[in-house]
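User: I'm preparing a small set of examples for a lab meeting where we compare how different chains pack in three dimensions. I only have the primary sequence for this one, and I'd like the structure in token form so I can line it up with the others. Please keep the answer compact; I'll paste it straight into my notes.
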Amino acid sequence: MIKLLLPLFIFMTSSAALADVKINWPEGKSAVAWHTVKKMFFLKTVEPVGINTEIQAEVITTGDIRMIRVLIPVDKFDSGEPSRDKDVAKMLKGDVQPNLEFTSLEMTTAQFTEITKGNLQAISGILKIGGQEYPVDFSISVAGAGPDQIIDGSIITTYSHFDIKPPSVAGGLITKAKDELNLYFHIFAKDVKGYIPGIGVRN
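Assistant: Understood. Below is the structure token output for the 203-residue chain.
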């Protein structure tokens, strides 16, 4: 039975938090990113962002069924602090599963086409972390056309949704992250294996 795209359901803290975050995407590259909020020394609040451009995206085709899959190496996030990036890879259980894996729910060719036209504002799927599967629902938008068409996605969620303990230093006395986690993707159509912009999927 074909699994239809679900209505948008985001595990959110507040919609305003997502709108206030600006990701400085590398020019011309597909990438994903995380963003969180940390409290330092009980006073200062910082909002680190980690970007990963070493991703692989593809459209999987079986008859009239389409699925989108994105592979994300956990050790390739760059937040500007190498020690933090190593901690992120450990937190994401890179020793168990080197790549995070997002797989959309099944959709028909017509539904996939609606996504590429920008007529659907949400995509649902499963994010696999450390061998465990978690449901996720991204809000999406599409801009441009042809090879440079960009699909952007975002979700406001929590560490606890993925069974991850928010990171802290010295038991939280020096620094502690809130249980807030924003995830983003920024993917160029030209980088999606199995998809020809303006034509459709490769069978």
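A couple of notes for your slides: Residues 82-91 form the longest helix (10 residues). The chain is about 10% helix and 45% strand.

User: Perfect, thanks.
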